[in-house]
Write a structure and sequence with these properties.
Helix content of chain B: 25-40%
Helix content of chain A: 40-55%
Order of helices and strands of chain A: EHEHEHEHEHHHEEHH
Strand order of the largest sheet of chain B: 5-4-3-6-2-1-7-8
CATH architecture of the largest domain in chain A: 3-Layer(aba) Sandwich
Shape of chain B: extended
CATH superfamily of the largest domain in chain B: Histidine kinase-like ATPase, C-terminal domain
Number of domains of chain B: 4
Shape of chain A: elongated
Number of helices of chain A: 9
Strand content of chain B: 15-25%
Radius of gyration of chain A: 19 Å
CATH class of the largest domain in chain A: Alpha Beta
CATH architecture of the largest domain in chain B: 2-Layer Sandwich
CATH superfamily of the largest domain in chain A: Response regulator
Largest sheet of chain A: 5 strands, parallel
Oligomer: heterodimer
CATH class of the largest domain in chain B: Alpha Beta
Chain lengths: 209, 715
């Protein structure tokens, strides 16, 4: 129960195919089932939004050849509208100087995890994915999400928290507020950390005794 | 100094040096017109219906010089002044978006810095304010010069704190129902000339929409006791004059349709069309366009100042929206909020830029709730609705762009026609003279000499005009040639960027394949990939080669490669002779129906490329078809030579009919399609001023048909 579920790598890119070197390497490294490719941006976005409970790192292309596809920046924004817990690595063939300043500002302000050039070594991109998985594993909010998601659905609808003001929250509500980083979500995270530290120091005292 | 010393309780606190007043006012607000503009915006936010900016004795600096901004807004209570106005950084407007009912005005003032704007104007400020319920005017005196003195005379080691300067207040009796705020600035720093006041007038006049009545009203007046033209002068939006074209669109609420502009290139007129209600809600828009002549007139009338021609602005409920309310003195620094200048209108000649139009777009809080000012005031929140609105505005400018293009061509032919008319007039004159000469030769031989002279002069004149016409034509050709070069440079830029991205993508793919070899070879686990990757590298390189070949064909176009040839002959030679063996081998039946002859002068090799690419696509598409057919027909119509090229292969999805002409766009990547061929075809045809499109296919149920149109006048 305490083991953290593996993260899924969601690749949304129309210049990467199932047999591209990066896909082959990732499947070896993270397991065949944990790497999913979408060559159409809308399909990739739908997958991410329908699986928010899953820990995910998204490798996202910025431009799609087909003008009808929604572009990477929009996919990123749509993901951010729903959650701050999915890490997105944007891959582009453009040079950074070619990206509009406003777009860059948006990417930074909405917490893009990394930006990398498609012309870089794929091993460099793999390192970024490793980094994202590592950070996801130690991020308090991500760990809480993971913990909540491992409960059966009916349990997640039961009240687990009551505030001093008398409001009560189910696990699902807490999860939602953590994803959206609302006040209650942030407070919950802070309290949990406090509790963890307190428990840890008590433990220490005990050990010292 | 009475400094707080908290050493005992083990804590420290921030204090603010007296110098802070400079940071807040003088350095934050860069210009004195902006300073007043900010103060007036605050009056609007305070629900004022009237505001007067009074300039007394400001043409020279004296004890009597003062600037007064007075309004009849809600005014401030003592508590407001103490707890809000005089607390740095507070801004009640941040908490609320709208002012109190019944006004419900969207706040336009700066984020709590407007009040420091006064420091830009003068050293002494008296604020006189009263809420309706209060009995007296509350008067607060702020002497910035005392702050200045403290700051300048600071003794080393001693702190002077901003928050410790005492500002005196007192009460003055008032009439019961009076309310409002008066800011009286004296010891002014700079003289104000009539031009400075005019500059202020111009800025203030933009605050309110010229077309939408603000209700309840917000009226601004400027009053000067020195400049007659500004004695109690109401600030009204300037009537737009001297424009060359004007259009207005609105929302037709009866039909539930939005009007939009289009251009009729036959009649040469702008006209309105109805489209469905847009997602951003109903809007009303007026656009004044200034052609070169109109701009000249405008500059003459306004002493070379055409900064008022400053693009399209959005007003909400009659008041300028915050992104447009930021005053910027230098036109060049003005931000192009709607992205008009950097939009897709990159055509060199027919671009309609923000310096050519004045436009007002009226929206309302009620009907356009999704057009939201961003909190940083620099832009609007990038909602779906705002995106469509921007696109809608650009579409309106598109109509003016067409208009501009039309006028440019029309103007050209007027000059040419006038010259031709003059030529024929002289010719008639010559003929008439010959007639007179004949008649006079019998009756008046002396007159004949004179007439001969006249005839000679007329001939000379005719020669001059003929020369003029041919010069004009040459000049016209030269202009067209230059235009063409400029256009091609513009499209080359776009082309270069597209190609570079495509090439970079290809290189990245090859690099990744190579990297895989570098890292894994000869690991037997990956054996099946090594072989596959070698093929992929080979194919990718092939694609790269065809792209670079195409680039070279662009680079190598020179005059000598142009020749005259008959299109019908060329196509039938190509398909019947050059491809006969291929068609035989593949079992393809060829059907040719080229009716008319059409001779053009162009790059023959490039023209052949078009058909080679089409044939090569068809051959691929026919691989698995049973009765393979390729059909090519062509005929002349009024203006064009039209060619249909079809096959009965696997065909293409009509949803892709535009997309397939994009570089690297292919649905046949697995069969080695690189997505280069049709891109090349389209570019070559466009270079002939022609067009290619996918039309309903001739060989239903499978197959594809391309329609190519090449105009007679393809230069």
């Amino acid at each position: 129960m305490n083991e953290i579920t593996p993260s899924k790598i969601v690749v949304i890119h129309d210049d990467i195919s199932e047999i591209s070197p990066i896909m082959v390497e990732m499947k070896v490294k993270y397991g065949e089932d944990n790497v999913i490719l979408f060559q159409h941006s809308q399909e990739g976005l739908d997958y991410v939004l329908n699986n928010l409970g899953q820990k995910m790192v998204v490798l996202l292309d910025r431009n799609f050849h087909d003008g009808k596809e929604i572009d990477g920046i929009e996919v990123f924004e749509k993901i951010r509208e729903k959650t701050s817990l999915v890490y997105v690595i944007l891959i582009t063939v453009s040079k950074i100087s070619e990206i509009d300043g406003e777009v860059l500002k948006k990417l930074i302000n909405k917490d893009l995890f990394k930006l990398e050039s498609f012309t870089s070594d794929y091993s460099k991109i793999l390192k970024l994915i490793d980094e994202a998985i590592l950070v996801l594993g130690v991020r308090v909010d991500a760990v809480i999400e993971d913990w909540i998601m491992r409960h059966p659905n009916e349990k997640r609808d039961q009240v687990i928290l009551k505030t001093k003001e008398g409001r009560s929250y189910t696990m699902n509500e807490i999860l939602e507020s953590i994803r959206m980083q609302t006040e209650i979500g942030v407070t919950f995270e802070k309290n949990l950390l406090k509790l963890a530290i307190e428990l840890f120091s008590r433990q220490k005292l005990k050990l010292d005794d | 100094m009475n400094q707080t010393n908290n050493i005992d309780d083990q804590s420290l606190q921030w204090r603010v040096d007296v110098n802070a007043f400079r940071l807040l006012g003088r350095e934050l607000i860069t210009d004195r017109v902006t300073a007043i503009f900010e103060l007036v915006k605050n009056c609007y936010d305070a629900n004022a219906e009237e505001v007067t900016v009074t300039f007394n004795n400001v043409s020279t600096i004296s004890e009597k010089s003062e600037i007064i901004i007075s309004d009849n807004g809600t005014g401030m209570s003592f508590a407001d002044i103490r707890d809000k106005w005089m607390v740095v950084g507070t801004n009640s407007k941040r908490v609320k978006l709208y002012s109190d009912a019944p006004y419900n005005r969207k706040f336009v003032g700066e984020k709590g810095v407007g009040r420091f704007a006064v420091d830009k104007l003068g050293a002494r400020v008296k604020i006189k304010t009263k809420e309706k319920k209060d009995k007296n005017w509350l008067c607060v005196n702020i002497n910035w010069d005392e702050y200045e003195n403290l700051s300048n005379n600071a003794v080393e080691g001693q702190l002077s704190l901003f928050t410790e300067v005492k500002n005196k207040y007192s009460y003055e009796p008032a009439e019961v129902d009076k309310k409002g705020t008066k800011i009286i600035i004296s010891k002014i720093f700079d003289k104000w000339s009539v031009n400075d006041i005019e500059r202020l007038y111009k800025e203030l006049s933009k605050l309110i929409s010229p077309f939408y009545p603000v209700n309840p009203p917000f009226e601004i007046k400027i009053d000067s006791n020195e400049f007659i033209s500004y004695q109690n002068k109401p600030v009204k939006p300037d009537a737009v004059k001297y424009y060359s074209h004007y259009a207005e669109i609105k929302y037709d609420s009866d039909k539930g349709m939005q009007e939009t502009l289009a251009f009729d290139s036959k009649k040469g007129d702008l006209y309105k069309m109805h489209i469905d209600k847009q997602n951003f809600g109903p809007v009303k828009m007026r656009i004044y366009y200034f052609d070169e002549g109109a701009k000249r007139k405008y500059r003459n009338a306004y002493k070379n100042d055409d900064t008022r021609i400053d693009g399209i602005k959005i007003y909400r409920d009659g008041v300028i929206t915050t992104p447009f309310a930021e005053y910027e003195d230098h036109v060049e620094k003005k931000r192009d909020i709607l992205g008009i200048d950097k939009s897709r209108y990159s055509g060199a000649f027919d671009h309609v830029g923000i310096r050519e139009v004045i436009g007002v777009l009226d929206i309302t809080k009620k009907d356009n709730p999704q057009i939201i000012d961003a909190t940083n005031r620099q832009d609007f929140i990038d909602t779906k609705e705002y995106k469509t609105l921007k696109e809608f505005i650009l579409q309106q400018l598109d109509a003016f762009k067409e208009q501009k293009k039309y006028s440019r061509v029309a103007k050209r032919s007027v000059v040419e026609n006038k010259l031709i008319d003059a030529g024929s007039d002289v010719k008639t004159f010559e003929k008439e003279l010959s007639k007179i000469e004949k008649e006079l030769s019998k009756t008046n031989p002396d007159a004949k000499k004179n007439i001969a002279k006249l005839k000679e002069q007329a001939k000379g004149l005719h020669r001059v005009i003929s020369k003029g016409i041919s010069e004009q034509k040459k000049y016209q050709k030269e202009v067209e040639r230059k235009e063409k070069i400029l256009y091609s440079i513009v499209s080359m830029q776009e082309f270069a960027s597209l190609i570079t991205h495509a090439v970079r993508t290809s290189i990245a793919k090859v690099k990744h394949l190579g990297e895989f070899f570098k890292l894994n070879y000869p690991n037997p686990k990956f054996d099946k990939f090594f072989k596959e990757y070698a093929v992929m590298i080979y194919n990718e390189m092939d694609t790269l080669l065809s792209v670079t070949d195409f680039m070279l064909s662009f680079a190598n176009v020179d005059e000598s490669s142009f020749e005259e040839f008959n299109v019908s002959t060329l196509i039938s030679d190509l398909l019947k002779k050059q491809y006969s063996s291929v068609f035989r081998k593949e079992g393809i039946e060829l059907e040719l129906g080229l009716k008319d002859d059409f001779v053009i002068e162009t790059n023959k090799k490039a023209f052949q490329d078009i058909f080679q690419n089409l044939v090569s696509n068809s051959v691929k598409a026919l691989t698995n078809t049973k009765n393979k057919k390729i059909k090519c027909t062509g005929y002349l119509n009024t203006n064009n030579f039209v060619i249909y090229f079809s096959d009965n292969g696997y065909g293409l999805d009509m949803n892709d009919k535009d997309w397939i002409f994009g570089l690297y766009n292919t649905r046949t990547a697995e069969q080695g399609g690189a997505g280069v061929g049709l891109y090349v075809v389209e570019k070559q045809i466009k270079a002939l001023n022609g067009d290619i499109e996918v039309v309903e296919n001739e060989f239903k149920p499978t197959g594809a048909t391309f329609k190519i149109t090449i105009p007679f006048n393809n230069k």
